[in-house]
Amino acid sequence: DHNKENLFNSLNYDVAAKKRKKDLLNNKAKIQYFHQEKWIYVHKGSTKERHGYCTLGEAFNRLDFSSAILDSRRFNYVVRLLELIAKSQLTSLSGIAQKNYMNILEKVVQKVLEDQQNIRLIRELLQTLYTSLCTLVQRVGKSVLVGNINMWVHRMETILHWQQQLNNIQITRPAFKGTTFTDLPLCLQLNIMQRLSDGRDLVSLGQVAPDLQVLSEDRLLWKKLCQYHFTDRQIRKRLILSDKGHLDWKKMYFKLIRCYPRKEQYGDTLQLCRHCHILSWKGTDHPCTANNPETCSTSLSPQDFINLFRF
User: Fold this and answer.
1) Model confidence pTM above 0.85
2) What is the pLDDT of residues 3-17, one digit of tens each?
3) Which end of the chain is more exposed for a tag (fewer CB within 10 A), N or C?
């Protein structure tokens, strides 16, 4: 009965999608538009239908990641998802999904080259992907990658080219000559620095000017950063004392990130509707029969998204 319910719901969604496409084709507009659904139904349990149609590759093709990377609220989410797929799930993608993955990655790199933001984040992503591919291409003939091996070697060369482009970026100083960060009162500077969630950003900011160097060493700043990312128990296991006998929160932070995962925070995430089991971006219309669909949505982290398709 459980499997029949999954199949029945899936068929209903397919019929609804086909009807909308037919209605769009029959309208009197001069330009015909094929509506592309930007959601996917996640079958409950492990069924033949799920193994055939509800895969990580299918979800990756359907959820419009190309548009998501243009949204600053979703950019880091997509990059983290690309990194997780590169680490262990690349072979789970179909041939089309693998091609789509590389196309999206190319758009991400081009965006970073144009706006000169998130450079370190994309460098780490490319290095992770290149390392994984080095391992996978050595297993030729074992069906670990879809497509000709020469195509993947070419893609690896492209990744190296992207890495070189990122390394050659010269950050241009803006022509704006108004108020700068260092012109703000110290309390405001410190308040802004407290909103940085990555200790490496604090270190980089401290290298800009001597005054910022002093602020970036503030013990309370690093203490809050440690308490934000890690539990009290994790912190107690990694205590480091300074020469003066105080807790060295800065050294503790960098020791902790080597031992435990940091807390992830995103402006916008993929969401799973608990009522109809449809996966989509927040604000995306989907055929939900709940009276109040917004109350049925659960936010998913990138790892939660991947775990949905492990069966």
Assistant:
1) no
2) 544 544 554 555 555
3) N
